[in-house]
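for the writeup, i need someone to sanity check this before i put it in the appendix. the sequnce is what the collaborator sent (i think, or maybe the updated version? ugh). structure was predicted straight from it, no edits. if anything looks off just tell me and ill rerun, i have time this weekend
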Amino acid sequence: MRTRFLSLLAAGLLLAAGLSGRAAVQDSAAPEYGPPKGALVIVGGGSTDGTGIVEKFIELAGGPDARFVIVPTAGGNKNADGTIREYKEDQIIAGWLKRGLKNVRMLHTADPKTADTEEFAAIVRGANAVWFNGGRQWHIVDSYLNTLTYKEFHKVLERGGVIGGSSAGATIQGDYLVRGDTSGANVMMTEEPNHQHGFAFLRRSAIDQHINTRLRWDDLIPVIKKHPDLLGIGLSEGTAIVVKGDTFEVAGKWKVAVHDDTRVYQPWEKPYFVLSQGDVYNMKTRKIEKLGTGSPPARRGSEGGD
């Protein structure tokens, strides 16, 4: 009996060790940056006409029959005279309806207490896709951070949906919130503690936008210098990254600047490198996995990565 007991005990320990090892392998494979499920479409602002970016967003959601939620809150919660700003749903969703969407709703409130109610959060519950419009990203924080609605945003990804956004709707998807200061968009790192954090759909990141037309190419440099654990992503207008897990692909018209403090730069180089349309980048390994047709010939012939 004692021998049989010891045999069973040993078998149990081996099984437990095997399960633990399997769990460790699964955990090590879990994404460090992007969502384990679902996708992100992060756009640098400007027009996306002819880029296929919005079409990709709709495709990732499951097509025009999927459930879409559009959030215009970055446009402002109050008017200049202090009154609460109102948004008309028919105007906010009009452009999406023209794209053939069958089930699209607007979601907006200026009151985080409202956003923390079951009734309001239910608008997002069951949605396949959420899109954040442009404006100022701190308005989105003021309305939704740490509310039931905020949790439902994350659940969209957990069930394999997609979250997208442009301009402020791009920056809000990062972990550290750049240009979150209420005094103006030129302040990269606010001292306002309630406006230092984005929604972290893309973890360990800081996302900037309009880097081309507004000459913001270098603006993430001091952010990454102060927070070297972050990956800085600067997006040109009409340009996006499509994120799945720890990789993203560049889509659209122009360029993406990647600020990576783990990379060695020459004294004459800027402390970031530039990706082009079709380039695929692994944020976890910090390597370029594939060079797209938008890359110059010299880069296409390289060993891609450094």
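The first helix runs from residue 2 to 29. The CA atoms of residues 52 and 291 lie 19 Å apart.
thx in advance!!
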